[in-house]
Specification:
Pfam families: Ribonuc_red_lgN. Helices cover about 65% and strands about 0% of the residues. The protein is an all-alpha fold and about 200 residues long. Helix 3 packs antiparallel against helix 4, helix 4 packs parallel to helix 8 and helix 9 packs across helix 10. It is elongated. The protein starts with 7 loop residues before the first helix and ends with a helix.
Length: about 200
Amino acid sequence: MGIQVKDEQVAKLIAELERSFPKLDFQSFKEKVDQALEVKKMKENQIENMLILTAVERIDRNEPDWTYAAARLYLKKLYMLSSDFRGEAGYGSFYELINSLIEIGIYDSKVLTSYSREEIDYLEKVIDPERDKLFTYIGLLTMAERYLARTQNGDFAELPQERLMMIAMTLLAEEPKEKRLQLVEEAYWRFRTYT
């Protein structure tokens, strides 16, 4: 019989992780989580951080996939943190995001003079949010802390695949229009392999 995590929401999250990473041994992870939850009452963000750190401390050569489990936990947190600005957790309208970031002075309005609404809508369909699940913990943390666009208040506004697409769009904005979207798409596909 396995260890039962007492907090229902946390248990559900751990069960989801177990399904995603069936080769990992979650018994000691669950024990540590239960012990931490018994010691003191924690706020939601404290529980998130505790789960991430508990996963990170298990990364070793025998179970290297803990880096992906920790990344998955951090990704959930990142989606929620960005929802304060975006109004929703996870990916949404790329065009609306670009407009919002232009309005607050984070993006240059040149993006909208270089690309039409139709082109941006097409590129939104190219974005593959599933690729976020391929980041290691340190890769995702580095992407978030150093490269994702944030508001003036420090809130996350952008998500990893949007950042990669914006890099491709910016680099190739001056290419001839008849082949530019294809080049942007190719560049995005190359960038996204660096997770």
